[in-house]
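Page 37, continued from 36.
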């Protein structure tokens, strides 16, 4: 049976999703052993069932979303951005805390938590794509184009920043790339980049001299210092990840044979890439990077083929966001970047983060589906015109 008869959009992206999802189920099941003994008396089955449900429902969400005409998300983004700001603010005040960071809201009646920054990220990228497409006639104007776009970008990023610096930075970078592709005034973008750099430098100076002035300041300071020192005592997580990678070698220890899952904090989420290498080898690590590069290529291809500005910007913005996040996660695992809280899209264990990743991919596939339909219509019209001429 050909499953591709029942789904539309880019078949390569569908294949990547299935491959990464299957890998996720295998590696998460192996990685949660320590968690299972700590909280579930060694019952890894409950984690496996929950993760399979989340992954399966994520793929179902992706299927549903890719059936929706992507232009509908343009209007939805207006409401979503308005909702995102108070949700983020409420999370900072009343959210579920972990590691001094209030990032989640509990979903009543379930054991799941809702990370509001995932919702805000999707809403903002879609909104920026909408505004850029609408403002094309005045895209170089500061008051008519730049300000209406940068104000919500700045507000959302600042609300995410106190609890999740890396997500705020990645979201700002993605919006910056979108604005560049959307032909916004280069001078305005350079001012924005300069302002961002100044803000970043001032923030670093502030947390190094007055770390307690910001709730997460001491944590950020420690992570930067640990990364800079690079010794095993101060950089425990990165050292354990490097041990896992070195132990795995080229071909790995085999599925379920990881040793570092017992020592590596966040083995099933933030550092799952190291566990993948330990169990499946260096070849698997290269393959995963290759899959994300293909995802980026296909996203760019979909954007180029879309005849509408909103569709192009939406596809490229969401694709860049997912691939940037993946590259940061893998860079942290191999100690090329200070420790952050970024999961590996479609692979790391998670709840609503997997669902929002699936929704993002569903929107990308929706753009692809609409483009395919438009191309088929044009081809049919051209054939009809040729027959009439003949």
């Amino acid at each position: 049976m050909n499953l591709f008869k029942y789904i539309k959009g880019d078949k390569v992206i569908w294949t990547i999703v299935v491959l990464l999802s299957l890998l996720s189920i295998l590696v998460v099941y192996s990685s949660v052993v320590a968690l299972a003994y700590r909280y579930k008396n060694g019952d890894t089955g409950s984690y496996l069932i929950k993760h399979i449900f989340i992954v399966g429902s994520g793929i179902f969400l992706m299927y549903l979303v890719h059936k929706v005409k992507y232009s509908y998300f343009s209007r939805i983004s207006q409401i979503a951005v308005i909702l995102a700001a108070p949700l983020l603010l409420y999370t900072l005040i009343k959210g579920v805390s972990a590691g001094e960071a209030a990032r989640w809201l509990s979903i009543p009646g379930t054991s799941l938590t809702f990370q509001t920054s995932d919702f805000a990220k999707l809403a903002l990228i879609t909104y920026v794509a909408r505004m850029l497409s609408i403002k094309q006639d005045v895209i170089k104007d500061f008051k008519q184009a730049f300000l209406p776009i940068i104000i919500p970008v700045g507000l959302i990023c600042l609300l995410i920043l106190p609890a999740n610096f890396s997500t705020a930075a990645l979201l700002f970078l993605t919006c910056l790339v979108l604005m560049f592709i959307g032909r916004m005034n280069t001078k305005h973008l350079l001012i924005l980049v300069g302002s961002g750099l100044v803000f970043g430098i001032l923030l670093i100076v502030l947390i190094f001299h007055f770390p307690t002035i910001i709730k997460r300041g001491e944590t950020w300071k420690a992570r930067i210092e640990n990364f800079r020192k690079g010794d095993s005592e101060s950089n425990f997580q990165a050292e354990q990840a490097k041990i896992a990678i070195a132990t795995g070698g080229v071909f790995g220890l085999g599925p379920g044979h990881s040793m570092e899952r017992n020592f590596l904090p966040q083995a099933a989420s933030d550092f799952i890439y190291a566990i993948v290498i330990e169990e499946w080898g260096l070849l698997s690590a290269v393959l995963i990077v290759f899959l994300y590069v293909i995802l980026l290529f296909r996203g760019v291809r979909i954007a180029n083929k879309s005849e509408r500005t909103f569709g192009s910007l939406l596809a490229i913005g969401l694709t860049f966001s997912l691939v940037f996040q993946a590259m940061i996660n893998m860079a942290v695992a191999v100690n090329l970047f200070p420790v952050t809280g970024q999961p590996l899209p479609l692979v790391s264990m998670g709840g609503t983060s997997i669902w929002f990743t699936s929704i993002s991919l569903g929107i990308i596939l929706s753009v692809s589906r609409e483009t395919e339909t438009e191309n088929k219509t044009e081809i049919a019209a051209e054939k009809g015109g040729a027959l009439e001429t003949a």
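The chain has one domain: 8-389. Flag for discussion at group meeting. The chain is about 70% helix and 5% strand.
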